What we know:
By secondary structure, the protein is mostly beta strands. The chain has one domain: Electron Transport, Fmn-binding Protein, Chain A (Pnp Oxidase, Chain A, Roll). Helix content is 13%, strand content 36%. The protein has 4 helices and 12 strands. A 7-stranded antiparallel sheet has the order 3-2-6-9-10-5-4. A 3-stranded antiparallel sheet has the order 1-11-12, with no helix packed on it. The longest helix has 9 residues. The protein is globular and about 60 Å long. The mean pLDDT is 92.
Amino acid sequence: MKIQRRPATVLLPVPAVMVTVADGSGGANIVTLAWVGTVCSAPPMLSIAVRPSRYSHELLQRSPDFVVNVPRASQVWELDYCGSVSGREVDKFAACDLHAAPASRVASPLIEECPINLECVTRHRLALGAHDLFIAEIVALQCDEEVLDSRGRLAPAKIDAVAYVHGDYWSLKEKIGAYGFSLKQPRHGAAG
């Protein structure tokens, strides 16, 4: 039996990432976000949703770009910390012993320790209510060689990305299917 509940943000899982944005004075801030998603494949685009009260929101309004850094599950402390303190008061790079590295196409730095870095240029901003949505084109992708498989494709188990599920962080490791597999094999328990 289904139970009706009030509308809530329980789409799950969603990626938990650290977004870096330049502050215009040679520094940068890190903000942890879970309201992140792919919105277009050609050109490759993603969206991030940020509360206007966040320091990074202020920086995102002034900066034309940002970097989405995908952390490993082993970096969950840093991920949580960067979402729990304000960059107005704390240098999150120093506090987390993270290193800002130059991006290849944008002014905002990437986080060297994260295995995937998506360099993004903001194309649209939409005020939604509690959050503003920044829609950006991915103009460059950097990744650690060790997270690639023998064919040069990203190997999710090697990344061990983090998902955010209704207030909790979860590790993602195991592949359970691939696009189109249902057309090639019968459903569990179904007659062939």
